[in-house]
Amino acid sequence: MKCRYCGHEIPDGMLYCEECGKEVRIVPDYNPLDDMLTAQVKGAISGENDYSEDDIYESVRNTTAMGRSTGAGRYTSAGRGTGTGRNGAPGNTAGRSAAGRNTAGRNTSGRRNTSGGSLPERERRRRQAERKKALRRKRRQRALIILAVLAVAVIAACFAIYQTSYAGIVNKGYKAIESKEYDKSAQYFQKAIAKNGKKAEAYAGLAKVYTKQDDLDKAESVFLNAIDKQPKNTDIYEACVQFYMDTDQKAEISLLLEDAQDNVRETLAGYIVKGPKFSLDDSETFEDVQELSLSAGNGCTIYYTTDETDPTVKSTKYAEPIQIGEGETVVSAIAVNKKGIPSLPVKKTYTVELPIEDAPAVSPSTGQYESATQIEIKVPEGYEAYYTMDKSDPTTASTKYVGPIDMPEGETIFKAILVNAKGRTSGVTTRNYVLELSQGE
């Protein structure tokens, strides 16, 4: 072989030129196992082939073994000194020398053998890393399973506690209502009340059971009995108010809250409706016809009656002042808010007494008469007159005056009164007549 730098002939087995001192460049033979091994490793890493880890390991092992067996025979100097492995060819000193140097790792063949020998180490590390990942994954799975079991146990325990709690028992009661098991539902609510009598949900549920059975009186008594025992419990009051709203008994709300404790009235102020205000004082007697005005706040509507009955939303709606005529008039009114809740009725009695005429004018005046004479009473408009001639005081049951009356013969005590349209009577006018007719009459 000639030196590529100076052209001097280099003996076989020499690794440098004796003339110029340059190292001999040895070109390795092509080995297809290297490419196959490289392809297998890359494919296994990228997942693009079906080679198993054992296949790759076996290929690496075979390649390494082959490198050991071929020795310097794989790396020749211009095709000479091929040798047959570590033993070399018999009598071929150069081959043995090359093999020795190759074994020392000074040529490219030594580096390839070293590189090939590192592949199993990388594979071992990779497989060890995968085993660690798999172990961590199993640990996570076990932890998740344990957490799931604990969660199920906690949920089951909470559910068991809830089932025997106040809320759980009330919930069972409402479910029984949905299935129309009213007796069973009532038992649940009564059990809940026994467990906690201060909460309103069980009372509302029990009242609903009776409402479903069309027994509103019994449903109402559920709340009223509880309120009697707990007069400051605003929750029960509120549940009762809602019961009245749901069953269209809104008129009962004001009655319920009328004598309630201050804390209850303050909490449920939105359900309290003040009655209408009257413009006239009913403590005085009026001498002429009056106009009564009514008013209410917060946009309430007013309904009233004048026949001494209690007003409802079906009574006369107040729109203009009420005329109060002569006599006694009873006005009763309620205010109804936007929720349809009426106030308690406000009732007042008004008296109007128009001035009455004095005792009626009667003619002729008291005296003695000798000729036939007629007695007359002056009756003002709007009045009637009644009289007697037997010395008794006249009333509306006495003889009604309709025109002049013939004076009786002899002595007569004539008495008369006026009566207005309202039945009020005037004073009594009394006349004493003596009629003695002459013989010619």
From TrEMBL:
Residues 283-343, 364-430 form the GH29D-like beta-sandwich domain. InterPro entries: GH29D-like_dom (IPR059177), TPR-like_helical_dom_sf (IPR011990), TPR_rpt (IPR019734). SUPFAM superfamilies: TPR-like. The chain crosses the membrane at residues 143-162. Residues 124-135 have a biased composition (Basic residues). Coiled coil: none annotated. TPR repeats lie at residues 200-233. Residues 62-135 are annotated as: Disordered. It holds the Pfam family TPR_19. Residues 104-117 have a biased composition (Polar residues). Keywords: Membrane, TPR repeat, Transmembrane, Transmembrane helix. This is GH29D-like beta-sandwich domain-containing protein. It comes from Clostridium scindens (strain ATCC 35704 / DSM 5676 / VPI 13733 / 19).
